[in-house]
Every structure is written in C-alpha cells, then in structure tokens.
Design goal:
Elements: H1 24-44, H2 52-75, H3 79-85
Helix pairs in contact: 1-2
C-alpha cells in the first residue's frame, strides 16, 4: 500500500525587474522636461511666423526637452541601486 506524502506547495514570489526603477530624481527630470516642452511650444506660438523667438529660440528649447531631459529621466539610474544589484 502506497502512502501519499503531503507536498507543500511553495509559491515563489516573482518580483518585477522594473520595480522601484524610477526614483524621485527620475520623476523630477520628467516633469521638468514637460515644463520645458510647454515653454518651447508657448514660445513657438508667440508673434507672427517670422518672429526670431519662434524661429530660433523655441526649437532649441524643444530640443533640450526632447533630447536631454526626457532621455535622462528614462535612462538615469541611481548608483545606490547599481551597487545593490551587484
């Protein structure tokens, strides 16, 4: 006669690798990018189409938002987290 052993069902807790990825600094950079983006579009809407403010300054402000602040907010990772992962 075979005796069945009780097997304990152990559930492994699966944690997402993206948990706690964004820190306070990432959110600050993201919202700063949004503010700079709105400023750039506001500057673009000022005056007639040949206004130097809307032709030269606003594209530079928009490039700063799109090419600097948003990528920094996404890719910046704190050094404490990197050392903790290793």
């Amino acid at each position: 006669m075979a005796v069945k052993k009780k097997q304990k069902h152990i559930r492994k807790k699966i944690e997402s690798p993206f948990k706690d990825y964004w820190t306070k600094l990432n959110y600050i950079l993201f919202f700063a990018g949004l503010v700079v983006l709105f400023i750039g579009y506001y500057l673009m809407a000022q005056g007639p189409w040949d206004n130097p403010l809307s032709l030269s300054v606003s594209p530079i402000v928009l490039l700063i938002a799109y090419l600097v602040l948003f990528p920094l907010s996404i890719f910046l990772k704190s050094k404490r987290k990197v050392q903790k992962d290793i």
